[in-house]
Write a structure and sequence with these properties.
This protein is 41% helix and 25% strand. The chain is of the alpha+beta class. The chain has helices at 71-84, 108-123, 130-145, 151-158, 192-205, 207-230, 236-249, 255-266, 292-301; strands at residues 3-16, 27-43, 50-54, 59-61, 92-98, 162-165, 169-172, 179-185, 271-275, 282-287, 306-312. Strands 1, 2, 3, 4, 5, 6 and 7 form a seven-stranded mixed β-sheet that branches. Belongs to the GHMP kinase family. Mevalonate kinase subfamily. Keywords: ATP-binding, Cytoplasm, Kinase, Lipid biosynthesis, Lipid metabolism, Magnesium, Nucleotide-binding, Transferase. Its main location: cytoplasm.
Amino acid sequence: MSLLGHASAPGKAILTGEHSVVYGHGAIAMPVVRRRLHAYLHAASPGYGTVIASEQMQAVARPGRTPNPMPALTRTLQSVLDLAGQAGGPDWMIYLRGNIPVAGGMGSSAAAACALVRAAGDALSLSMSKDEVNRIVLDSEVLQHGNPSGVDNAVVVWEQPVWFERTTGPNRMQTKAEATFLLADTGVRASTAEAVAGVAARRHANVADYDRWLGDMGSVSLAVKDALMADNMDVLPDLLNCNQEYLRRIGVSHPACERLIKAALACGASAAKVSGAGLGGLVLVLCGRDQQAELASRLEQAGAVDTVGMELS
């Protein structure tokens, strides 16, 4: 089968503002360009129809047939076909594969949708702006998650840091600041909905403290944003470590996260924090570029199942 189209999209990580963003405060997210999901679109025999096979999900879907394990992606593909004025289903075999874990906090569903949209556009010789791609990917995220923030799709489509508030949506950040990170996966999978619901329940029982902590987390996010825009990296370690302390207070850290944080700081990292919903998931470490290899080894010894370097530049 000949290759008609190919595209890829990165993962994403939250730098600061997780959970407080739910309560109207700002958050910052970054692309993880060394973790990508690829879509390969091949021509199939006449009458074959369209098949989407996801290596990560270990699932195969045929649009229009049930059961359909990937309804959001089949709808996403149809949106591109509609935009191109393509009548009827093409004879395509589409493979989705890469190194972004499913339900790992890196935005795998948004990356899959983005790669699929661009690969289909490639096959159809359809030119789409990033705004058009973002709209289709956001629609896919709505089908997948119900009420997404809009952060994941914006980060994976534009591949640059994003500042997000629920009232204004995502805004791309133009910064000349440079920083190096290591993202470590605890291997502990937890539901974002469960983590958010847990914070809401604990807040209901202690509104005064939780609103103060969440507000302080929002102030930290604003300070990080200002530091990045002003290229004032000296204040970043204290701000990220402060963010982690508030994540502990609202109950979303986890013993696996704390082991990695302790190991990173003991190895000379300047900051380490939960990244994303917590209760496991990812830990983000601020470090020097020359520290990444040793830190990766130490964190794997401490239980990390995967590590990947990230750069803000």
